[in-house]
Each structure stands twice: as C-alpha cells, then as structure tokens.
DNA sequence: AGCCAATTCTTGACACAGTCAATAATCGGA
DNA sequence: TCCGATTATTGACTGTGTCAAGAATTGGCT
C-alpha cells in the first residue's frame, strides 16, 4: 500500500516524502475531503505539516494524475483518489454531502456536444445537484 | 427593455431600484461576467454602486430565477441571463474564455444517472473543458 | 403631494481558501 | 557520507465573498 504509493511517486519523478505519502493516504481514506480535512488527518498521522505543504502536495498529485480535484459551487475544493474510472458526483443541496455516481451510458456519455464552438474539448465534468436520503427524511 | 425588467422585478415582489436594473442590464450585455465586471459596468452606467449592493442584487436575482450563476473551478462566479433554456458551458483551459453549448440530445440528456444513491436529483450541471479556437492557434 | 414603514443601499470590518516568497530541512544519488 | 536539488516551513498577502449597523430609497396610503 504505502510502498506502492511510493512507487507511484517515483515513477513520476517525484521525491517520496512522509508528507506526500500521508496526504495520499488521507485522501484514499476519506473520499471527497477538503484540503483542511487532509491537513487535520495528516497531522493526526505524522504530527505536523504546514498548510503550504498540503496545498503543494495536493496540487502536484492532481497534476500528476494521482488525485482528482472537484470544485463544487459554494464549497472549497474536494479531493479523491478515484482517478481511472469515469464517474461523476451528486451533491446534496442541504448538507453538502457528496457521493459518487457512475456514468450512465458507456464511458463518456456527455462528451458529445452538438456544436462545440470550435473548442477542442477534452473533458466533460458533470455535477448532479439534489437532496440526499438523509435530508429527504427531515423536510 | 428596461420597463420589462422592472416588471419582472415587481412580479417577484422585489422593489425596482436603479442598481438592480443596472445589474440586470450589465449581465444581459456581457454574458459570463464576474461580479467585479458587473460592478465596473454598473459604475460606468449609473455612477456609483457598492460592492455589497452588487452581490445582494446578483444573489437575489439568481435566487428569483432572473439570472443564472456558474462557478467554474479556478475562477470566480460568472453570471448570465439565459435562464430558460437548457444549455451548458465550455471553458478554455488556457485563457478561461467561456462559451455556451446547447444540449446535445433533447432537453436534459445527462439527468439520467444510473445509480443515484438515493438522492433526489433536480439538476445536472455540465462543464466542458478544452481549448478555445484562439488558443489552439498559438501552442 | 406628502408621510411612513419596509426594503434596499452604503460603509467598513471581517472570514476564508488559496498563493507568494524567502529560508530551512530533507531526499537520494555519487 | 556529502552535496546539490527538491521539498517543507513560516509568515505575509490576495481575492472573493459575507456580516452588521446605520443611512437612503421605494412604494403604498391618506
């Protein structure tokens, strides 16, 4: 687990540091977590880490394809480690809870825009908004 | 034009003020503009307006369905006045330019998530990411 | 027209997420 | 083990947006 993370880092030309491993583990352990939650988790695990190191690691890991970032309207950025499958997200309008939703049809159903205005499109990001089961119960 | 905006405001139980009309006109005249751009536009039109009044107006108008807000990752919120048609957006990864994209198939093609995790979904927000024609020319 | 209560605007302080820049510590290859 | 390059820490800072109190405006009413 840890060693494979280390391997993934090295493979991409990155140094292996305690901070980066802990960030990876924190995100793996709690999907859709914020930078602050990562910070707290990492602090609980390796003692101290600076805010900057968390942001640096997260940005780097997103850039290198080890993590994925989602930035829903009205909340701070969330991170997850499901990077190789095509899935989207549902967010509860009331409590903000975020869940994964697998793509409905095939691999990238929404990538076919009718008129693309000349853009070269490489990604379709879909966020579903609604109300989660928990909040549905208490109106 | 102006009188119909005034009518729309009254219809929703809102008072008609110079600030709100100017905000509406600013957004109508420049699609996908930020709060700051609205502020500048309004200042050019009616002299002065406080930042707070701009935010209040925008939030209220979004809430009342006269404007639509989009909040792409990595940029501040954008506002537009196309509220009655179902369309999405393409954003250029390089320059941030935003354009409208009409829905590919029917009215709401992406609203059918396969497993909705028990959420009651009411909206599917789609953002396409890519590179705009202008930026494609200069790699 | 003029008045009054409710709504709206202004002003200024504030909160939060994220970034910048300089210095210190760590990693990993020789 | 040592050294250069990469990474972490620290602290200041920016931008976007919100909160709260008082002043101004709106629009219904007489």
Your description of this structure?
The structure is a homodimer of 139-residue chains. The first copy, chain A, has 139 residues and is of the alpha+beta class. Chain A has two domains: 77 residues, Arc Repressor Mutant, subunit A, CATH 1.10.10; 52 residues, Ferric-uptake regulator, C-terminal dimerisarion domain (Dna Ligase, domain 1), CATH 3.30.1490. Helix content of chain A is 37%, strand content 22%. In chain A, the strands form two sheets. A three-stranded antiparallel β-sheet of chain A has the order 1-3-2. In chain A, strands 5-4-6 form a three-stranded mixed β-sheet. In chain A, helix 2 crosses helix 3 and helix 2 packs across helix 4. The longest helix of chain A has 13 residues. Chain A is globular and about 45 Å long. The termini of chain A are far apart. At the A-B interface, strand 4, strand 5 and strand 6 of A face strand 4, strand 5 and strand 6 of B. The first copy, chain A, binds a DNA duplex (30 and 30 nucleotides) through helix 2 and helix 4.
């Amino acid at each position: 687990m840890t060693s494979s993370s280390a391997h993934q880092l090295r493979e991409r030309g990155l140094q292996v540091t305690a901070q980066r491993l802990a960030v990876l583990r924190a995100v793996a352990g709690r999907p859709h977590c914020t930078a602050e939650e990562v910070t707290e988790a990492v602090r609980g695990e390796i003692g101290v880490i600076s805010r900057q190191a968390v942001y640096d690691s997260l940005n780097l890991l997103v850039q290198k394809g080890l993590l994925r970032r989602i930035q829903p309207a009205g909340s701070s950025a969330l991170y997850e480690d499901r990077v190789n499958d095509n899935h989207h997200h549902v967010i509860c309008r009331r409590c903000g809870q975020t869940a994964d939703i697998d793509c409905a049809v095939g691999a990238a159903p929404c990538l076919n825009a009718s008129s693309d205005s000349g853009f070269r499109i490489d990604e379709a990001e879909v966020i579903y908004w609604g109300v989660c089961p928990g909040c549905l119960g208490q109106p």
